[in-house]
Amino acid sequence: MRKLLTCLALVAWAVPATAQDALKIVPADGVTWRPHPLFPGAQTAVLAGDPSKPETIVQRNKFPPNFKVAPHMHSYVEVGTIISGSLGHGEGEKFDAGKGAMLKAGSVFALPSGRPHYMWTANEEVVFQINFTGPATITFHNPADDPRRK
After folding, report:
1. N or C: which end of the chain has fewer CB within 10 A?
2. Over the stretch 41-78, which tens digit does the pLDDT of each residue have?
3. Measuring CA to CA, which residue among 117, 121, 127, 123 is closest to residue 102?
4. For residue 118, with 0-12 CB atoms within 10 Å meaning exposed, 13-18 middle and 19 or more buried, which class applies?
5. Of 66, 72, 78, 76, the residue nearest 8 (C-alpha)
6. How big is the CA angle at 67 (ends 51 and 95), to the nearest 5 degrees?
7. CA-based diameter of the chain, in Å?
8. Taking the C-alpha atoms of 82, 71, 112 and 100 in order, what is their torsion angle to the nearest 10 degrees?
């Protein structure tokens, strides 16, 4: 619990330091989905910030049913909130759904930087939001799992 609170405090602290100069509001019906640049079949919407810059990013992802993301890690703290559906999330260098947890809508996860993790969906579409301080990075534990190499 202490780690979760520390991660959330770090994100809250980073927002004023890196926030844009103007208020930005994205109404629920104003979310613009695009094909995810890394995961074929998934969609993404950047709601705030520029993932290529060192600033606060708010991004939504939509994963289709029966979708898997191989073990990977990021160079930043990632805080995620499940908006709809259920997202499987596990930690470790090998994909093992049996060692992860299925997070229902409303659940939050706070992942320290450099921590290998993986995700999956079951029989439903999942929408989740992640907040982090960019620039966005992703390193796959097994380079053969990196979609950029395929």
Report:
1. N
2. 999 999 999 999 999 999 999 999 999 999 999 999 99
3. 121
4. buried
5. 78
6. 90
7. 44
8. 60
Q: State percent of the chain over pLDDT 90.
A: 81
Cis bond before residue 135 (omega within 30° of 0): yes
How big is the chain, counted in residues? 150
- Give dist(CA 84, CA 6) in Å, integer: 25
Which token pair is 95? 């994909």
Alpha helices in the chain (DSSP H): 2-18
CA–CA gap between residue 61 and residue 35 (Å, rounded)? 10
Q: Which domains does the chain have, with CATH numbers?
A: 2-149 (2.60.120.10)
pLDDT 10s digits, 91-126: 999 999 999 999 999 999 999 999 999 999 999 999
The count of other CB atoms within 10 Å of the CB of residue 7 is: 19
CB pairs under 8 A, 24+ apart, for 40-44? 40/147, 41/67, 42/67
